[in-house]
Amino acid sequence: DISRAVAATCVVLQHYQHFYFLPGKTLPVDFVRNQQPFYEIIKPFYLFGTVAVQFFFVLSGFIFFYMYNKITYEKKINLRNFFILRVSRLYPLHLLTLFFVLILQIFYFNLNGEYFVNSINDFKHFIYHFFLIQQWGLAEADAFNAPSWSISVEILLYIGFFLLASFGIKNLTSALFVLITSVLVLVINNSVAYQLSLGTVFLGFVCFYIGGVTYFIFQIIKDFILKKKLQIL
To answer: Residue 76: exposed, middle, or buried by beta-carbon count in 10 A (0-12, 13-18, 19+)?
Structure first.
């Protein structure tokens, strides 16, 4: 929870520069980055805050393998209950922020004749955001509450994890296999002439299964330490 709080703070501070954006998501030529509040103290937060999102994906992978991997394989939880448990934690807040941003964007547009930062705020993109599918290769650009893109990716990660865990990700080897496959898909996507607009999804899968691999390494170390303690006793 502490690491989540730090990561969330990183994301907020990285987005601070949005208040200076000009149309087209560009910063003014006279924008001086080191004049942001307390810049010398929290400089990494301003510069590398987006990495915190990747950390969230890694953390999700670790937690999911810890909580759900075994019970999913043993059929102690079905897809419906699994999805309700996960989405119920995210969706109410997502809806609240979506409608809040919608109202603010309308207000901002009436004052300034343009939207704040994210300009494509039409009905189609609202539907994408409402159902949290905006990052599935559908959206043409950022819209409305754009930072919710990470939650959209999380939903796909949840579905993918449940399907894979149902067949069994039983050990470090199988987790590594899924991770390597995810890395290959990401590399292929980034190397083709016309990149699919699913790069963030593939990166999310890579980070998520880094968390899964970390979980199995953690278990191996934990079992080793426990075994040593028992031998001493």
So the answer is: exposed
Phi first, then psi: what are they for 26, rounded to 5°? -115, 150
Asked if 48 and 128 touch (Cβ cutoff 8 Å), the reply is: no
| C-alpha–C-alpha distance, residues 57 and 59, integer Å | 5
CA distance linking residue 99 with residue 16, whole number of Å: 21
Neighbours of 174 (CB within 10 A): 15
Amino acid at 36: Q
Tokens of 155: 């939903």
DSSP-assigned letter for residue 22: B
Give per-residue pLDDT as tens, 104-131.
Answer: 999 999 998 888 888 888 999 999 999 9
pTM (2 d.p.): 0.87
3-state helix, strand, coil in the chain (%, to 5): 75, 0, 25
